[in-house]
Amino acid sequence: MPPALVAEGLTLTVGRERPRQLVSGLSFALAKGETLCLAGESGSGKSLTALAVMGLLPRAVRVTGGRITLGDTELTGLPEAAMRPIRGDRVAMIFQEPMTSLNPVLTIGRQLTEAIRAHRPVGRAEARRAAIAALDAVRIPEAARRLEQHPHELSGGMRQRVMIAMALALRPDVLIADEPTTALDVTVQREVLALLADLKDEIGMGLVLITHDMGVVAEVADRVLVMRAGRQVEEGPVAEIFARPAADYTRALLAAVPRMGTAARADAPKRRPVLAATDLCVRYDLDSGVMGMGSRRRVFAVEGVSFEVGERETLSLVGESGCGKSTIARALAGLVPYSGDIVVDGRNAANLDRAGTMALRRDVQMIFQDPFASLDPRMKVGDLVAEPLTIHALGSRAERRERVADLFARVGLSPDQMDRYPHEFSGGQRQRICIARALALRPKLIVADESVSALDVSVQARVLELLKELQEAFGIAYLFISHDMAVVDQISDRVAVMRLGQIVEMGTAAQVFDDPRHSYTRRLIEAVPIPDPSRRTFTGARLAGEIASPVRARHDPPPRLLLRNVGGGHWVAEESEAMAAA
Q: What is the CB-side half-sphere exposure of residue 206 using CA atoms within 13 A?
């Protein structure tokens, strides 16, 4: 049986006057029904290789050597008119950043049905049914209603699931997945990987998985190809690569992988609160009728949440997409209306004048989930990092540039990259720029919303270490929002687990990870992929039922969960039998 996809000596070059090779002599063959994982640091050429297969290379980049074959069709040099019917039908791709892949002015339903009807001779009604089925397959709650929403109305994890549904709707021969589960929590990640595995077995689909999560690689890969600086470092069966890596680079890559249960545990002393949130609530009405009048349903995004973050402390919020983690971050940044109290360094955010609000914003900085959507594409990245200093009139122009150069070096970038634009960087590099910008004002609290989710493991390890160093040096407190339980285990002093807008368990990292008391917490921990192929726990089993939704009747708020101290400040919500079985 011929392979589904073959690359032979693929070489990609940028520039004509001073050509530079971005990928050099890459070769691989993907069999039908096989999963090949491309692993390596940001900028290693993984995503460019995928774009070359799809015929979507940037204009400045061209194929200067080798060839790509899809089944019996050579793709290299294929004109766009011939490539268009192949793209999306025979070979599809899930891109890394969903917000840049979805049209912000079109509804989810319009984009899904257009993709289906572009390749299938079906009517609107049948395309709509297929779109709903695709959203159901990736466990998006209330799929029919989501068709009428726009991308900005969904969380980052929800948007990524829409992209996965769009790619899988046409059941392609080859699927290229570029960081497909980066924005997903562990339970939905496992569900999506199970879905990909099922389709791969059912239709013989070849899967090229680009990921920096070596736990995912260990769970699902048949073979691994490790890349560095555009070159192939080594390739082999997943068990052999993990057990006996031949290259020093591969060994360093595996050594940087965060593993559950390896963090040093220490008793956290009581610290003066930098942030205190009390009875925090965020609710959105779902508009209906003229000017939103007559709204009957409401999203209870955050419902009565209380917590504190002390000096030099890291409190992590974990939970599934849509549980309210990022909504809390936006409330703290003043980006959404809320009820309750938010007190930062003794100042209530609701009782401040303009000068007080400016001072509070210096003390609270954010690192957002989607780096591309956070950076103005018209500005140079050096100016973007210096912007907070300029707004708050700190330092001279020369002093600001010197500080920006130091921040670039601290987050693993070169100061000579300051004059480039956001589109010239990889996804991981853009996230490092966002981290540098958040550090510019030396704040007292940083709200990090999936701040390392786009980073490869070696850079992730360096950034986490940097965050710890800055915490000790400057007394910074972190509210760390993440779906990566292994990372949370490594960096956290305390952990709060959220479900449907409320905290179900909160305590020290040792209490939550070593002795989880709530069934939902246990389910999250059990879903974490283990970076060891010999301990592969992935079975492809489905979670029963639909993900619960925070949408309820407007005058029917969810019952408040009562947290009980089970010892030593370990708080656990009482749960019903229905919740325990969910």
A: 20
